[in-house]
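Re: [ENG-882] Designed sequences occasionally contain unexpected residues at chain ends

Forwarding the minimal case from QA. Structure tokens:
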């Protein structure tokens, strides 16, 4: 699969551009200012417990998904969405809950920050990231299905980013 007709894959054919876009989205999320800035408002203070709870839950869920995802595919981990040679389909651990825990980790952490900061600018970047990860995951799933025909059944059983949500049609 790495080589087709004896030719090595060209730059971009394994998803290199998708990785670059992902890094740009992370940078945008980190550096975009909170807007509107509601820190001096009464509602911001009244919702402090909910905001802090959302932040802690989002960060803990993100950390658990990230750690579990890395441990689950440690031998096959690559920044590219294109699967490495001789990989195995992993459907245990966090991969029994969601198909893309590394993407889910980022989305859960972002959601926690969005609620905590009450930032519309970060909400928009998170929505953009969700659309991007959906596209990137779909490309990755096409490649995984080519390599592992049983991926279709796995995708029909397991949610894409959230447990039970986004199961593929069988």
């Amino acid at each position: 699969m790495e080589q087709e007709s004896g030719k090595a894959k060209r730059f971009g054919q394994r998803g290199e551009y998708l990785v670059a876009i992902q890094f740009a989205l992370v940078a945008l999320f980190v550096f975009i200012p909170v807007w509107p800035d509601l820190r001096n408002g009464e509602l911001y203070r009244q919702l402090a417990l909910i905001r802090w709870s959302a932040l802690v839950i989002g960060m803990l869920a993100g950390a658990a998904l990230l750690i579990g995802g890395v441990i689950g595919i440690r031998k096959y981990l690559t920044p590219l969405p294109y699967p490495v040679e001789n990989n195995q389909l992993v459907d245990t651990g966090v991969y029994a809950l969601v198909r893309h825990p590394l993407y889910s980790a980022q989305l859960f952490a972002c959601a926690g920050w969005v609620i905590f900061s009450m930032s519309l600018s970060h909400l928009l970047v998170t929505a953009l990231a969700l659309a991007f990860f959906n596209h990137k995951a779909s490309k990755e799933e096409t490649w995984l299905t080519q390599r592992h025909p049983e991926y279709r059944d796995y995708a029909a059983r397991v949610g894409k980013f959230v447990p039970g949500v986004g199961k593929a049609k069988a």
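QA comment: On inspection the terminal residues look reasonable. The chain is about 60% helix and 0% strand. Proposing we downgrade this to a documentation issue.
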